[in-house]
Amino acid sequence: SRFKGRVLLLMSGHDYIAREFDEVTVASRAWDGLLQSPRLTREDIEGADHTFSRKVWKTAASDRVAAWMRAW
């Protein structure tokens, strides 16, 4: 909440850690409203595992990071 810069959350779709993050942020008062900030962009790579181990997932992740960076 103190960080005032832009944030990109790059989430893998088939990842227990990403799902735990979702569960914690929904249940935690400390996260109230933070994920709805206009400074935050969330990109989900459907089907990807935690390390984006397939080329298609790596490409999707890098494309989205590059697009996010170009947007700013």
Overview of the molecule:
There is one protein chain. By secondary structure, this protein is of the alpha+beta class. It has two helices and two strands, in the order βαβα. The protein has a two-stranded parallel sheet. The longest helix is centred in the C-terminal third of the chain and has 17 residues. The two termini are 20 Å apart.
Task: Write a concise synopsis of the structure shown.
This protein has 72 residues and is α+β, with helices and mostly antiparallel strands. It has helices at 16-27, 55-71; strands spanning 7-12, 40-45.
Q: Which spans of ≥5 residues are poorly predicted at pLDDT below 50?
A: none
Strand segment tally: 2
Strand portion, in percent? 15-25%
Order of helices and strands: EHEH
- The termini sit apart by 20 Å
Helical stretch tally: 2
Most strands sheet: 2 strands, parallel
Rg for CA atoms: 13 Å
Overall 3D shape: flat
What structural class should be given to the helix and strand makeup?
alpha+beta
Rounded average pLDDT = 95
* Main sheet: strand order: 1-2
Name the helicity range. 40-55%
